[in-house]
């Protein structure tokens, strides 16, 4: 990675200082900007100033997207087990538990169908627009 000294600060190739790069996970993980600033060792106003910089915004967005994608992968990995629990709940002794499981299964099924239909309609619209262009 290409690095250069700029005003006695180590700057990475994306233009962020090492302190800025350390600030990004702190911002994502902390409950407030004040807590994030303390973790990084700077003022809260410094974090807000960095948040106005396009390079910092881009890196923050990239790290947030990566964290969100990892979280989604974890959720998707547990989906099969969750479905099994719902299906097993249909055999529960409690009528309330059975009904709740049935309602959740039906709601998810209908939502999946709606999403599928929406996706088809959206693709059809995109195809029509690309023909016109």
Offer a quick outline of the entry:
The protein is mainly alpha-helical and 133 residues long. The chain has five helices and two strands; from the N terminus they run ββααααα.
Strand and helix map with partners:
Blueprint: E1 4-6, E2 9-11, H1 18-29, H2 33-40, H3 44-51, H4 54-89, H5 95-132
Antiparallel strand pairs: 1-2
For this entry, give a set of tags:
disordered N terminus, about 130 residues, two-stranded antiparallel ribbon, flat, mainly alpha
Structure characterization notes:
It is a single chain. This protein is mostly helical and 133 residues long. It has 2 domains: 1-79, no CATH class; 90-133. Helices cover 77% and strands 5% of the residues. It has 5 helices and 2 strands. It has helices at residues 18-29, 33-40, 44-51, 54-89, 95-132; strands at 4-6, 9-11. Strands 1-2 form a two-stranded antiparallel ribbon. β1 (4-6) and β2 form a beta hairpin. α1 packs antiparallel against α2 and α4 (54-89) packs across α5. 10% of the residues are buried.
């Amino acid at each position: 990675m290409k690095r250069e000294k700029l005003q006695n600060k180590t700057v990475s190739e994306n233009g962020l200082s090492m302190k800025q790069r350390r600030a990004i996970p702190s911002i994502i993980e902390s409950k407030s900007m004040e807590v994030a600033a303390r973790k990084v060792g700077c003022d809260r106003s410094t974090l807000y100033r960095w948040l106005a910089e396009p390079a910092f915004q881009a890196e923050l967005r990239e790290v947030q997207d990566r964290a969100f994608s990892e979280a989604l992968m974890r959720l998707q990995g547990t989906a099969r087990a969750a479905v099994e629990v719902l299906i097993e709940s249909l055999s529960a002794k409690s009528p309330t538990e059975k009904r709740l499981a049935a309602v959740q299964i039906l709601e998810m099924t209908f939502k999946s169908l709606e999403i599928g239909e929406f996706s088809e309609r959206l693709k059809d619209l995109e195809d029509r627009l690309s023909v016109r262009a």
